Amino acid sequence: MKISRMLRILALALVFSLALVLVPAVPALALPEISLSPASGSIGTVVTVTGTGFESFGGTEISIFFDGEEIADSPLTVPESGDFTTSFEVPDDVELGTVYVRITTVIGGAVKKSFIVEEPEIELDTDEGPVGTMVTVEGKGFYAGGAVDFYYYRDGSRLNLGDETVGATGEFSYTFAVPDSNVGEHRIKAEDALDNSAEAEFEVVPAVSLSADSGAINGELTISGAGFASDSDLDVYFSSVKMVEDETNKYGSFEVTIRVPTIESGAYE
User: Fold this and answer.
1) Distance in Å from the first CA to the final CA of the chain
2) 0.85 exceeded by the pTM?
3) Phi (first) and psi of residue 157, to 5 degrees
4) Most confident of 31-35, 166-170, 238-242
C-alpha cells in the first residue's frame, strides 16, 4: 500500500518536471513609456525625451511630435535595447498651457506625456514702500536663454531699469531700487525680445529723511523728501513751527535746508 502510494507521487513529480521542460517561460515585456526633463518651461526651453521599454520596436522607426508638430530629430530609429534619448526646443509658436509629446510606432500605437508651457508672469517681493526701496522681481514663462528688459512707469513715461538673462526654463530674478516717482501706484513691466511681457504694480508712499538726527540751535538741517505729489506746494515744520515753503518736482521730490529754531532741548518731529 505504501509502495503503491509512493509510486504515484513519483509519477506525478515526473510528469510535472517534463511539463516545465516542454513549456518554456515567456518573459513579460515592460510597457513602453517616456519621460520629459524638464516637465514644464517656456518658449526656447530644451526638453529631453527619454524612452524605455521599446524593445519590441528595436531597429524600427518611431515618430516624435510636440503639440502636434514633428520635432527635428524625428523619425528616430529605436536601438535594440529599447531605450533612447533625444531633445528638442520648445518653438515660439506653441500654445500656452498643457501640450503633449507623442510618440507613434510602425504599428500605429502611441505613447504620450504632458508638458506645461508657462505663460509670462512676474511677482514682486514687496508691493509698496518709499522711493529707494529695493524690490526683487521673480519671473517665469519668458524666452529661455534670452534677455528680459525691465521698465518702470512714472510721469507718463517709462524708465528702463536694466535687463537680466533668462534661465534655461524661462525663469529669472532681478533686483532694483525704486527710482524717484510721485505718490501712488506705478507699473513695472518685464519684456523679452519676442514681446512676451508681464506687469505688476508697486505703490510709492511718501518719506522724508534728515541730514542729522541731533544738533544745536541755529545749526543747519537739510530735509529731503520723495514720493509726494508732483509739482505740489508744501510747508516744512520743525515741530509746530513753520520753517519754509517749497514745491516738489515732477517726481514728487524736494530738498530744503533750515536752521534749528530756538527751542528747548528734546526730541521733535
Assistant:
1) 117
2) no
3) -135, 175
4) 166-170
